[in-house]
Structure prediction request, 373 residues.
Amino acid sequence: MTFGDLVNKYCQAAHKLMVAVSEDVLQVYADWQRWLFGELPLCYFARVFDVFLVEGYKVLYRVALAILKFFHKVRAGQPLESDSVKQDIRTFVKDIAKTVSPEKLLEKAFAIRLFSRKEIQLLQMANEKALKQKGITVKQKRQFVHLAVHAENFRSEIVSVREMRDIWSWVPERFALCQPLLLFSSLQHGYSLARFYFQCEGHEPTLLLIKTTQKEVCGAYLSTDWSERNKFGGKLGFFGTGECFVFRLQPEVQRYEWVVIKHPELTKPPPLMAAEPTAPLSHSASSDPADRLSPFLAARHFNLPSKTESMFMAGGSDCLIVGGGGGQALYIDGDLNRGRTSHCDTFNNQPLCSENFLIAAVEAWGFQDPDTQ
Prediction:
C-alpha cells in the first residue's frame, strides 16, 4: 500500500497503466520487493545493495519506482505479453539488461526528488491505521512454520498442529526453524511440579501449555532455563528476559508481550547502555526509544520505575508463576491441579482463562535444532 502511494505520487503515468491493465493494482505493487530481491540480475542487485548499505532502505523504494518508470516507457501502448501484468513486470526485470544499464537504473532512481524516510513512515503509519480500523492485523505471521511443526509427527493432548504453528509464528526468529520437542506431559509424567522441573531443566527456551477442565487453553513462552530458580537459595525469585510472553488460544487467540515493548516510555537505557548501539527494531533514524529497544535484553539493562514490570517467571517447590506485579498472569500449584490467572504489570494482560481454574493437562515443549535430529 505504501509503495502504491509512492507510485501514485511520483510515477503517475505508470500508475495509470497499472490501474488500466490489472484487476487488483495492490497485488501488483505487493510484488515490488520481489523485483529487487528475486528477479533483478545479480550484477544489478549488487550495485543496488551497495548503495542500500550506505544510504539505507529508501534506495530500495527509489529503484523499484525507477523499474516501474522504465517498464512504462517500454511497454506503454503495447499489449501484455502474458495474462498478468504482474508476470510481465517480473519478466521485464529479469531481462532488464536489454533496456537499461545498472548505472542508468540508479541515475533514474536518484532523479526522483522530494520523498524522504519521514514521508515513507507517515504513509506506512496511515496505511496501518486504515487497516486496523477495518479490523485487519498489520503484523503478518511468520511464514514457513510448517517446516518446523510437522503434521505427521506432532502429537499434543492440548493443541492442534494449526494452533502450534500459530504459537511457533510468535517465537523469536532464531528459534523459528527449531522443531517442537515434548519435554513434559502431565498425562505421561504425572501431575507433579517437581517432575515438571526435572524434565525441563537444561532446556532453554521452553513453551508451557495448559488446558483447563473447561477446555480453555493458555500458556507462556519462557526464555530462560528453569534451573535458574535454584540461584535464589530456595526462596521464590523472578528471572527471565523480555522475550517471555503469555497467551491464550481458547476460546479466542490473544498474545501479551512484555509491557515495555509496547510502552517504551516506561524505561530509558542507563547512561552506559545509551552509549552503545543496540539492535534497532526498525530502520528508522528516529530518536523514539522504541526504535532502540531490544526485548531480548535482560531487565537489568533498563531503568525501570519498579520491579513489577520485569517479573517474568518464578518457580518454587509449591508453585510456578509467570508474570507478576499487581497479580500473576499464571499461577500453578505444586500438584499441577489448580491455577489462577489475573492481570499483571509485566505483561499488562487480561486473565488468560477463568480466573480460578482446574487443570486438565499440562505440557512443556522444548526447541530442537533440526541439525541435531
